[in-house]
């Protein structure tokens, strides 16, 4: 399934690296746990092997897929009109929880478009979702492109209109 050293993405936490696979004896049952370190947050998570599939854990994207992320970050007229009527969208939170980098890029597109149309900026919940989406993408870009956090944020800002 996964191996030590694999770069993976865990929904809502972002990208990290499998540092170890440990066997634990819990209540007489032996289970393998994936130990995943998330460098951007400095968090380590232990995920039981029998919950990997349901957790949404996946490998990071391939470098050739970065162009899809850039395309998804581009605001559309449809997204802008759809978002304008609401103070914040549960749809954006749902997209962020999916664990998909494309979904996170769509959140950036939705919210940067909305931000450009508002004279007083985004509502607090929208700002939080925009920050989460950027952080999620940054964590993955750092591993895919082997770049720093600052370079990853710069990449997002250069490739999303109005960000």
UniProtKB/TrEMBL annotation:
SUPFAM superfamilies according to UniProt: CarD-like (SSF141259)
Domain of life of the source: Bacteria
InterPro entries, A to Z: CarD-like/TRCF_RID, CarD-like/TRCF_RID_sf, CarD-like_C, CarD-like_regulator, CarD_C
Start and end residues of each CarD-like/TRCF RNAP-interacting domain: 1-112
GO terms classed as biological process: rRNA transcription
Pfam short name (any one): CarD_C
PANTHER family from the UniProt entry: RNA POLYMERASE-BINDING TRANSCRIPTION FACTOR CARD, TRANSCRIPTION FACTOR YDEB-RELATED
Protein name per UniProt: Transcriptional regulator, CarD family
């Amino acid at each position: 399934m996964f191996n030590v050293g694999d770069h993976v993405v865990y929904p809502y936490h972002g990208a990290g690296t499998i540092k170890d696979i440990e066997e634990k004896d819990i209540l007489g049952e032996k289970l393998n746990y994936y130990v995943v370190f998330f460098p951007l947050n400095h968090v380590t998570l232990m995920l039981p092997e029998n919950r990997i599939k349901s957790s949404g854990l996946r490998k990071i994207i391939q470098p050739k897929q970065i162009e899809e992320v850039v395309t998804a970050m581009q605001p559309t007229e449809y997204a802008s009109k759809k978002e304008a009527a609401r103070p914040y969208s549960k749809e954006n939170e749902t997209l962020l929880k999916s664990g998909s980098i494309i979904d996170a890029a769509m959140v950036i597109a939705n919210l940067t478009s909305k931000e450009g149309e508002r004279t007083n900026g985004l509502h607090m919940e929208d700002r939080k979702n925009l920050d989460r989406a950027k952080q999620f993408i940054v964590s993955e870009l750092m591993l895919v492109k082997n770049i720093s956090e600052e370079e990853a944020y710069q990449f997002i800002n250069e490739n999303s209109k109005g960000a």
